[in-house]
Design goal:
CATH topology of chain B: Rossmann fold
CATH topology of the largest domain in chain A: Rossmann fold
Strand order of the largest sheet of chain A: 4-2-5-1-6-7-9
Oligomer: heterodimer
Number of domains of chain A: 2
CATH superfamily of chain B: Cobalamin-binding domain
Order of helices and strands of chain A: EHEEEHEHEHEHEEHHHE
CATH class of the largest domain in chain A: Alpha Beta
Radius of gyration of chain A: 21 Å
Strand order of the largest sheet of chain B: 2-1-3-4-5
Largest interface: A-B, 21 and 25 residues
Helix content of chain B: 40-55%
Number of helices of chain B: 5
Largest sheet of chain B: 5 strands, parallel
Strand content of chain A: 15-25%
CATH architecture of the largest domain in chain A: 3-Layer(aba) Sandwich
Radius of gyration of chain B: 13 Å
Strand content of chain B: 15-25%
């Protein structure tokens, strides 16, 4: 079973991770943690600090922690994260926890590689419009409002509930759990919600659907990575002197055997949403 | 393109002075390495387990508490015990020259003391951890 944990920087993802690892260990489960932090786009270096909160588990043989730098990958995880999760699963770890880069609004790749996606939010960050527009709100299997002792915690809970009341869900309806990870409050409730989601995935057959989607996603990512590097080489130097950007793009694409025709600017293929606003069919 | 070197920067024992470790961590990052920072108050076992799990090429240990003659050799022993003594182990802090010489004799690859130029440290890590990477792959 794999659990993805995402949310904005500073929301308490690492502290939540530590609390979840502690819970899993108390239940006698072995745990793998893959923790992703950003690489510098300039030096390609990275400072990986998510381990600090997990220090109590460093010498526990039932816990394996691997920090990853994103290495230019933009979806909130690293290009090799899916493989790391697969390896840990194949190795026999009972629970694999993936902590993403601190993300903003559109980094949703975690939902492609984890069975259960937790979106952690903190009170006092943005208004109800943020809650409505952000792409990461659409991938949550479980919303976790951390720092539940914050004066604005209840407002955050109301806003998420209000958003969910507007929507009709196909399948799983996301749960909402309040936590105060530092003190361990709400972690039992969070674990119970994760369990319920795992049962749902297996009972509904959605697990198989997600696995197929994850496979397709990884194929796409691997192919895209190779193409991107070829593309970077193709647009080196001043090959496009005197051309406008659209014409220059056609010159590059011609090298790849791409013919003129498809729109270069567009959203790409849509995927079926997990929820849409009530009243829309 | 080769993968960046991976370096664990660690603080051990009862020693809360981490400004030096943070400066080193940032310097190695800006030199293109992936730095895993352990946080404060680690035991030699925790540090070595971290380096193994993270597939690190090197460990840099910062000690400003005066306990260097105890903690550095414990890390060396742990690395040997775990069969991980291919990992380049270096360190720094307020360490007298005689002690530094003794620590090097006991298996610490380099000791950098206050005033050591950052470039010198980066060059050392690039050179020695680069060699280790070539050997281990």
């Amino acid at each position: 079973m794999s659990i993805g944990l995402t949310g904005p920087p500073g929301v308490g993802k690492s502290t939540l991770s530590a609390a979840l690892v502690r819970k899993a260990r108390a239940l006698g489960k072995s745990v793998g943690v893959v923790s992703v932090d950003p690489s510098s786009p300039f030096s390609h270096g990275a400072l990986l600090g998510d381990r600090i909160r997990l220090a109590e588990h460093f010498t526990d043989e039932g816990v394996f922690i691997r920090s990853m730098a994103s290495r230019g990958h933009l979806g909130g995880v690293a290009g090799a994260t899916a493989d790391a999760v697969l390896l840990m699963d194949a190795f026999g770890l009972d629970v694999v926890l993936v902590e993403t880069v601190g993300v903003g609004q559109s980094e949703i790749e975690i939902a492609e590689l984890a069975h259960t996606t937790l979106v952690a939010l903190q009170p006092g960050s943005g208004d109800s419009i943020q809650v409505l527009k952000a792409g990461i709100m659409e991938i949550a299997d479980i919303f976790v409002v951390n720092k539940a002792d914050h004066p604005m915690a209840n407002q955050m809970r109301r806003e998420i509930r209000a958003m969910m009341e507007m929507l009709s869900f196909t399948g799983w309806v996301p749960e909402l759990v309040m936590t105060q990870a530092l003190a361990g409050d709400g972690i039992d409730a969070l674990w119970a919600a994760i369990d319920r989601h795992a049962i749902y995935l297996n009972a509904s057959g959605e697990m198989a659907v997600r696995r197929r989607a994850a496979f397709a996603h990884q194929v796409r990512q691997l192919a895209l990575g190779r193409l991107e590097r070829r593309l970077d080489r193709a647009v080196c130097g001043d090959f496009a002197a005197g051309l406008d950007p659209y014409a220059a793009a056609e010159v590059v694409l011609a090298q790849f055997g791409e013919e003129r025709g498809e729109d270069a600017v567009g959203p790409g293929p849509a995927r079926p949403p997990r929820a849409i606003v009530k009243g829309l069919t | 393109m080769s993968r960046p070197l991976r370096i664990v920067v660690a603080k051990a024992g009862l020693d809360g002075h981490d400004r030096g470790a943070k400066v080193i961590a940032r310097a190695l990052r800006d030199a293109g390495m992936e730095v895993i920072y352990t946080g404060l108050f680690q035991t030699p076992e925790q540090i070595v387990q971290t380096a193994i799990q993270e597939d690190a090429d090197g460990i840099g240990l910062s000690i400003l508490s005066g306990a260097h003659m105890t903690l550095f050799p414990l890390v060396v022993d742990q690395l040997r015990e775990q069969g991980a003594d291919d990992i380049v182990f270096f360190g720094g802090g307020t360490i007298p020259a005689d002690d530094a010489a003794e620590l090097k004799r006991r298996g610490v690859r380099a000791i950098f003391t206050p005033g050591a130029p950052l470039q010198e440290i980066v060059d050392f890590v690039n050179r020695e951890c680069g060699k280790r990477r070539e050997l281990v792959g």
